[in-house]
Amino acid sequence: MMENQDLGLSLSLNFSDKRTANPLQLNSLASSPFNLFQKNSWTDSFPSSDQNLEKCRTFLKGIDVNRVPSITYEEEEEAGVSSPNSTISSLSGNKRSEREITCYEELEIMERECSRSISDEEDGETYRKKLRLTKDQSAVLEESFKEHNTLNPKQKQALAKRLGLRPRQVEVWFQNRRARTKLKQTEVDCEFLKRCCDNLTEENRRLQKEVQELRTLKLSPQFYMQMTPPTTLTMCPSCEHVAGPPAPSASRSTTIDPRANQMVLSQRRPVSFTLWATSPVPHRPIRQFGQMGSLLILENPRT
DNA sequence: GGGACGCTGTCTGTTACATCA
DNA sequence: AGTGATGTAACAGACAGCGTC
Q1: What does residue A191 show for φ and ψ, rounded to 5 degrees?
Q2: Residue A290 to residue A282: CA distance in whole angstroms
Q3: From the alpha carbon of A174, which nucleotide's C1' atom is closest?
Q4: I need a labelling partner for A97 at 20 to 30 A (CA). Which of A34, A45, A182, A288 fits?
């Protein structure tokens, strides 16, 4: 258990969290009307460690942690702070005067320190605040993401300024957004390929069966002569591409070209083969062919 | 020219918090 | 009220590209 007198010192010297390590921040706190680090203020406010925690919680209850700070974070970018370690250090850029620290920032810092002592005492892990973005902020970010899914420093700065966020927050949001987009695309890819696989498996099964039937019929020429070929046309519901008549010099492969979003059938005679036969889902929009693989080729194992 | 080095941005996996059922 | 699932902000580490020496 930490002594009261030690608390201020340890808070200012022992921050393992890089975000709070800037001495200017502590200086600003020391000169603020909410100064909690001067011994009297601190001990008055938080007489003991246990009571500290409770008072912190009580004191901070009802504070909107998402409140847009009254200052911008241009200094952060100007100082070239864009690394993952810069999240909170931006609160105390070198160019900022102590006067620029607002009460809300102080409360945030206070909360952080209170929480730090909580986590330090309770689990020893570093605390990190999680700020929920507002709907408006998210909407603007989404709009911006639609236009360009990466940001150059100027765009990031402008967006951060517009939203009242730190550039680092905008940066992180875009990182996470790209990751989510990629994940979703991967899921779509997976679903599409699974459907392809299912349909091809079914088609393979059907062809095997047909081969078997033909072999049987071959043994009885009379039937074979009377039989009409089991030809069916296949039309893609999206592009309305219809598999054409049998090519004179047909290869033995059934090829699906996802890039063209259409199916090319080149067998000895057309067969009813469609990827979409069992799926109401339209063609998957393919954007990254490198990840998809360019061609899917099904060789008839019997030929 | 090219290797070492530092800087920067992005990707990827993970963690921790907020929210909801 | 407690709890698990889910979404996501934030983080850390790896990596690639680029400029400089």
Answers
A1: -60, -45
A2: 21
A3: B10
A4: A45
Q: Encode pLDDT of A228-281 as tens digits.
A: 655 555 556 555 565 544 444 333 333 333 333 333 333 333 333 333 333 333
Say if residue A17 is in the same domain as residue A127. yes
Q: How far is the CA of A265 from the C1' of C21 (A)?
A: 60
Protein-to-nucleotide distance from the CA of A254 to the C1' of B15, whole angstroms: 47
Whole-model pTM: value is 0.48
Contacts of A204 (CB under 8 A, 6+ apart): A298, A300, A301
Which chain B positions come under 7 Å from a protein C-beta?
Answer: 7-19
Same domain, residue pair A121 and A235:
no
Q: Provide the pLDDT confidence category of residue A107 given band limits of 50, 70 and 90.
A: very low
Q: Confidence class of residue A204 from pLDDT cuts 50, 70 and 90?
A: very high
**Of A112, A131, A150, which residue sits at a domain end?**
A131
Same domain, A285 and A189: yes
Between CA A82 and C1' C12 the distance (Å) reads 14
Bigger pLDDT: A301 vs A209 = A209
Does residue A189 share a domain with residue A127?
no
**For chain A, what is the domain count?**
2
